Amino acid sequence: MPTITDALLDEMRQVGDPEADDRVAALMADEVRSTMTGLIGSARLGSSQLSDSLTRFPYEPPPEPDLVAAGQEVFQDHGPEILWILGCYSLPAAYAAKNGVEVLSQTGFLGAQTNRRLIETAIMVTDVMRPGALEPNGEGTETIDRVRIMHAAIRRLILDRTAPPWDSPTHGLPVNQEDMAGTLMTFSMLVIEGLRKLGIRLTRAEQTSFMATWSYIGTRLGVHPSLLPATVRDAKRLTKSIQSRQIAASPAGRALTAALVPVLESKTLPGIASATMRLCLPRAVWKGLGLRGHLLMDVVIRVAAFVMGIIDRTLLRFKRRSRLFRSISMGLVAHLLESERDPGRPLFEMPDDLRWWAAGQPPATPTARVFNRVMTRVASTAHA
Fold first, then answer.
1. How many Å apart are CA 28 and CA 30, to the nearest integer?
2. pLDDT value at position 362?
């Protein structure tokens, strides 16, 4: 991976995805809108009835298939917690990016319906991280291709808009290379960090395989090779570089965060989502997103994460067993499964190979039961 410099990232802010952009440019403006409707309104991102000539890209297999399969296994083991981190860390971190968040705020497809945005994120991640999903005709491969075209369609729609016009010199192209790379890091590097902050430490091999899987997904999504980390260390450097340039408070970021928190907490404990955000995000970032601290809630969740870390290190790994945060993260999965949807809206479904998340789990450990009782009492006190 080349050295990440401001000059490189400045250049990447003015670069989209030429291969996908050329396909969308071949369509008339009204056809682009139809494309967006087909992509966003389909029952699943991977089942749109759009032409394969538009939505399918040449398939290139991963250079290390076994490493990708191992990365998918990390999701099999930690999926509910990963989805929770995506909601409480990855999405808020994306909302804190002052320029990239403008796309979400100006595009009704992604910014206006928080619950839908959360479901689409869960669908995409679950589609690509299942075993076999990234084979030539795998569901994950189809989803990635359609997301790539969706990005190009969004780019075209925003650039064609005249009210308000898009300010490319200030914000860069919509869904530009730096923003795509930053988003890729929220799905990969921030997930690794988020798990650690919850007390779930991935081994070095697990971190390497998880990053390799997402770097391959980034290749399929059209991210420029210069912005694809080859190692976890590269990913840390890239993440830090982009954050130092892009993280800043904005009205759009605060509005999106304020809409996200109640959705995350609709099936979990009051205050737990915002407490997790404060646990994961730097203080200046969560304050810039409009979150207010709650000392007791924050202390309890930090102590719980510390205890979880001790247990995790002592017993090596829980793998598919009950964890302190499993009941909370499964609350989010339950919300995704039970969310009311209009006909034709994106639908989150529990794949057969992941149904063990919701069924057949061993009873909660005594530590987990105590944690749940304490968090319930603290939550009721915080919102009394």
1. 6
2. 46
Q: Which residue in this structure is represented by tokens 């369509």?
A: 27
User: CA-to-CA distance for 370 and 382, rounded, in angstroms?
Assistant: 18
353 three-state secondary structure: helix
Higher pLDDT, 228 or 269: 228
Could you give the CA distance from residue 120 to residue 127 in angstroms, rounded to a whole number? 10
What are the residues facing 247 on neighbouring strands? 97
The model's pLDDT over 256-288, given as tens digits with 9 standing for 90+, comes to: 899 899 888 877 777 888 999 999 999 999 999
Task: Say how many C-beta atoms besides its own lie within 10 A of residue 376's C-beta.
Answer: 13
d(CA 90, CA 189): 9
Helices 114-128, 326-338: axis angle to 10 degrees equals 110
Torsion angles phi and psi, residue 44, rounded to 5:
-140, 155
Q: Which helix (H) or strand (E) holds 89?
A: none
DSSP per position, 26-68 = TS-HHHHHHHHHHHHHSSSGGG----HHHH-------S-HHHH
Q: Is 95 helix (H, G, I), strand (E, B) or coil?
A: helix
pLDDT per residue as tens digits for the range 305-357? 887 777 666 655 555 444 566 767 776 777 666 665 544 545 566 566 665 56
Task: Tell me how far apart the terminal alpha carbons of the chain are, to the nearest angstrom.
Answer: 51
